[in-house]
Amino acid sequence: MRKKLVFLILIIGLVLPIGLKAQKKSTKELPEKYKKWIEEEVVYIITPREKEVFLQLETDRERDLLIDAFWKQRDPTPEIPKNEFKEEHYRRINYANHWFGRSSTIPGWKTDRGKIYIILGKPISTESYGTTGQVVPTEVWFYQGDPRYGLPASFYIVFFQEEGIGDYILYSPVRHGPRKLLEGYFGNPKNAYYILRKIDRELAKISYSLIPGETIEINPRPSIISETLLFKIEASPQKRIKDQYAEKLLKYREFVEVDHSVNYIDNDSIVKIIADKTGLFSVHYAIEPARLSIYSYKDKYSINLEVYGKISDLRGKTIYQFQKNVPLEFTQIQLPELKRKRFSFQDVFPLIPGNYRFDLLIKNTVSKEFTSIEKDIIIPQSTASLQMSSLILSHKVRKDLSEKYTNRAFKFGNLQIYPPAQKNFAAKDTLFVYFQIYGLTEELKENGIIEFSIIKFNEDEKVQTITKKVKEYEDKTDFLQKFSLDNYQPREYTIEVSLLDENMSKILVEREDFLISPVVFIPRAWNLSEVFPPSDDPIYSYILGNQFLNKGETEKAKIFLEKAYRKKPESLKFALGLSKVSFILKEYQKVKEILLPFSAEAEKEPAIYFSLGKSCQMLSQYEEAILYYKEYLSHFGTHLEILNSIGECYYQMGNNKEALLAWEKSLEINAKQEEIKKIVDSLKKETKQRG
Predict the structure, then answer these.
(1) What's residue 497's pLDDT?
(2) 592: which strand partners?
(3) DSSP label at 39?
(4) In what order do the strands lie in the sheet with 138-144?
(5) Model pLDDT for residues 481-530, shown as the tens digit of each residue
(6) What average pLDDT does the structure give for the chain?
(7) For residue 13, what pLDDT band results from cuts at 50, 70 and 90?
(8) Are strands 281-289 and 343-350 parallel, antiparallel or unpaired?
(9) What DSSP string describes 159-218?
(10) Nearest Cα residue to 281 out of 374, 384, 400, 359
(11) Burial 111-142 (b: 16+ CB within 10 A, else e)
(12) pLDDT grade, residue 218 (50/70/90)?
């Protein structure tokens, strides 16, 4: 497979929404067409989650996006323009309004018959009763059900006119009973069944049970199952879809284009925190979309992924963000294999200690699909204290000494782990369990015990337990244990790993669930994982330094950014990073020393002129500052802050005329700068008085 990867480690301007909950509106506050949509057109098929999201949307554009996505999620053939579900739904509404609202005081869609017809569609057969005068007007609709949505294989729905007048209402064997179907009957409710049976045996059976074949002849009682059926019918439209797409649309509505927003793809994912030998913690993640559409043109097949990641603290402040573009091309020979397997995008990045929210968004630009991860993560303060990482389960581990000095997702030392995001294994697989233990004392290294227990999921029954001494492992930080699954029955299990002291007391425990599938062979995902430099590369110090800077820990930021700069002083990126933190620390002369060697590159990088000008201004080197500011304007165009800074420099030099020119130009761009207005008016007044 030919792969092309282009990535950008840090994007300054990227904004990935953190999904703060919007203010929920009432339906009365909605514009009329949206109020009608949610209260009338889709009232019986919209899920509570979809409705809640819809009421949080702020604009008509957002509401239109969700409506498009709503129908898209229910489209049985999304590959063609026609949406059969939507067309059938509105046909049912029109039918209900036409036929069931004729003799009613309410619209047909609001009637009980209209509601059932809209939810279930046309019945297979209908039967009418009540022409003899012994039975109130009654209709019996027969349906075939779908067990996938909690419905029986077949069932009846009954409607009747109470006391022979008014709208047809939905009949319940428990709440109404057969006496309600008898014309003018006021006798013993228990005898009503036998009276109805003499009139029509089949209707009598249905009056006690809506489920064909359910036994009711001996000591007949209304069927509780039938009552449950009526609730299941109302809930059945909500079970037909996965409605989490609505929350994703709400979360990313400012970031996902219109044509992407209706195509949320579910996924399986893994996010793990692991330290390297230097004690640097990194976030390793893998995401496997449920499907991945491939664009074809002639004999070429391609995918183009845009990957956006964001780390924010508990207050919502952005600590780190990144963007990657991942174009992939395939041949026709590779296509069958790609369709048979899932795709796994894997990545890794370093992160400073703290509690964070990890948001990841992946867009497939050729198919207009998107998927996402939202995960709370904790990065430990250090590896000095005794602690255990979470467990990583894998079906395959490869040792590769040739790549010992490179980094990639789920590669630890010379071990490359291949964790399936679904955590599923075949009986013929080997289960590998990888984890780390930090801060082991010499006593625990010598006498500590690691216990592995495989337990039936949600049960206390242990299927297998093995123990090994810590000293049996060559590496006292990275631990790897394998299990044969040959004798395990297909089901869900939990693997529990415990660190015990010499008295067999548990000190640390970690658990992970997994599934053993009944299938003999599981097609494994094809992985895309980029190779990164070793951990001592200055890029990691640069990333960590910027993370500390964004977190507000300036002194720590300086340590890492200085380290990156010292290792590679010819790097403009590292120079700009250090100059930024130096400026914050008011080390203005240092900013000049760092950036002056890059003056030749300033025509391509606006931050050089900007930072040099600001530093000179803070050092009261006004003439030099003005030179840098004017160079900026000549190369990159008008900039409000720079115009104001030029005015300030001239003012400090006593050149009020040039200061006025700069500030007046600034006010032409933005007239709402009240402080600048006051200064300009004061200078003009002063000049006029002197004149």
Answers:
(1) 98
(2) none
(3) I
(4) 125-129, 138-144, 154-161, 168-170
(5) 999 998 899 999 999 999 999 999 999 999 999 999 998 889 999 888 88
(6) 89
(7) very low
(8) antiparallel
(9) EEEGGG-SSEEE--TTTT-GGGGBTT--S-HHHHHHHHHHH-HHHHHHHH-SSTT---SS
(10) 384
(11) bbbbbbbbbbeebeeebebbeeebbbbbbbbb
(12) low
677 phi, psi to nearest 5 deg: -55, -45
| C-beta neighbour count of 80 within 10 angstroms | 9
CA distance 187 to 627: 104
Find the helix or strand (DSSP H, E) in which 227 lies: helix 224-239
SS (H, E, C) 262-330: CCECCEEEEEEEEECCCCCEEEEEEEEECCCCCEEECCEEEEEEEEEEEEEECCCCEEEEEEEEEEEEE
Q: Following DSSP, what letter does each residue of 378-392 receive, concatenated?
A: EE-S-SSS-EEPPPE
Cα–Cα distance measured from residue 516 to residue 427, given in angstroms and rounded to the nearest whole number: 6
**Of all helices (H) and strands (E), which one includes residue 62?**
helix 60-74
Using one digit for the tens of pLDDT, what is the confidence trace for 370-397? 889 999 999 999 999 999 999 999 999 9
Rounded to whole angstroms, what are the CA distances from 165 to 132, 139, 175, 195, 568?
15, 14, 19, 21, 89
In the chain, the domains with their CATH numbers are: 123-222 (no CATH), 538-690 (1.25.40.10)
Q: Is 597 helix (H, G, I), strand (E, B) or coil?
A: helix
The string of DSSP codes covering 71-92 is HHHH-S-TTSS--HHHHHHHHH
Residue 691, pLDDT above cutoff 70? no
Angle in degrees, 0-180, between the axes of helices 656-669 and 640-653, rounded to the nearest 10: 160
How far apart, in Å, are the Cα atoms of 23 and each of 438, 626, 670?
44, 48, 32
CA 183 to chain centre: 58
DSSP string covering 608-639: HHHHHHHHHHHTT-HHHHHHHHHHHHHHH---
Q: Of 569 and 303, which is predicted with more confidence? A: 569
Q: What is the phi/psi pair of residue 428, to 5°? A: -85, -5
* 16 has pLDDT over 60: no
> pLDDT value at position 1?
34
State whether residue 436 is helix, strand or coil: strand
7-16, 154-163, 247-256, 537-546: least confidently modelled range: 7-16
For residue 473, give the 3-state DSSP assignment.
coil
Only one residue has tokens 């029509």, namely 200
Element (DSSP H or E) covering residue 379: strand 369-379
- Pick from 480-484, 574-578, 605-609, 681-685: least confident: 681-685
- Residues 322-372 pLDDT 10s: 999 988 888 888 888 777 888 999 999 999 999 999 999 998 887 778 889
> 318-330 and 267-275: which strand pairing?
unpaired
Residue 303 to residue 5: CA distance in whole angstroms: 12
Pairing outcome for strands 343-350 and 526-529: parallel
Return d(Cα 156, Cα 140) in angstroms, integer: 6
- Structure confidence at residue 118 (pLDDT): 97
Q: How big is the chain, counted in residues?
A: 691
Q: At 248, which amino acid appears?
A: K
What pLDDT does 264 receive? 81
Distances (CA, A) of 52 to 57, 208, 470, 522, 605: 9, 37, 52, 38, 46
First to last CA, the chain: 79
User: How high is the pLDDT of residue 622?
Assistant: 97
Q: Is residue 9 predicted with pLDDT exceeding 50?
A: no
pLDDT tens for each residue of 639-688 = 999 999 999 999 999 999 999 999 999 999 999 999 999 999 998 888 77
C-alpha closest to that of 292 among 372, 370, 374, 409: 370
Q: Which two three-digit tokens encode residue 255?
A: 């970031």
